[in-house]
Amino acid sequence: MENQRNISGFILLGLSDNKNTQMFCFGLFLFCFVALLVGNILILISIFCSPLSQQPMYYFLCHLSFMDICYTSSVTPRLIDGLLEGTKTISYGYCMLQVFTMHFFGCIEVFIITAMAFDRYVAICKPLHYLLIMNRTKCHLLVFAAWVGGAAHSFPQFCMTIRLPFCDSVEIDHYFCDIFPLLKIACTDTYITGILVVANSGIIALVTFIVLFISYAIILFHLRNHSVEGRRKALSTCGSHITVVILFFGPAISSYLRPPVTFPEDKVMALFYTIIAPMFNPLIYTLRNAEMKNAMRKVWLQRVYVSKNHNI
Fold first, then answer.
1. Hey, which of 52, 74, 146, 268 would disulfide with 58, CB 3.0 to 4.6 Å?
2. Range 162-183 burial, b when 16+ CB lie within 10 A, else e
3. pTM summary value
């Protein structure tokens, strides 16, 4: 612990040392971050200002949009600032905070995606009991359980990380503070800690993915008894969810469900579940969802109409 207290900060090596690559990445990730913020804020406002807010699926979508903003904001602003200013140092406290918030908000997002899959399962497989099963109280409980699950996942990770001693090596071969890169530079035997991290992060990601895969397989099996229009509507909604699951869970599982070592490719894989997948969520849930597109059109056209009348 004495060694740990002597560490004031770390050096994030980032994605590349090439200036041209850094400027390209700066423009790309700034665009992604702005698109994510604008898209998710539009979703939040559109749902809150429309009757869709009473439907369980859109209730969960609101929470997913909020989690996207929180989750990506724990990583992306620091990445963008580092690419623009060339600043690679990060304080010890900010690094530990980044470890906690990334796993906290990321795990909540995982469980909310799972709750959305459960909602679709009930809507398609048990339509007559849908309103009884997915009432507002149950929805609140599912979201509360997601927050509790996020805390139960992130606090042990944070406690293991903050207890690591660091000596002379303070260079982290990543663009944000994560547990595996920190284990690599810790001046102690981290084998047991690495196994615990894999058992925590990796198993949660794998089990959740399997549960989601099975639930959507059951949903697709039940769709054969629906009408053509019913199948089209259900497949449109479920297709959005499946796309989100693949974009998020694929890279996450490959990063955490393996021996606790780091590879150069980890940074590229991390881009998918920290920036790219959350950025695509608003597009996936709006462009492939007729109800969402109609709600957004009505809400924003009404706002433009009211604004014009007010100016007149």
1. 52
2. bebebeeebebbbbbbbbbbbb
3. 0.86
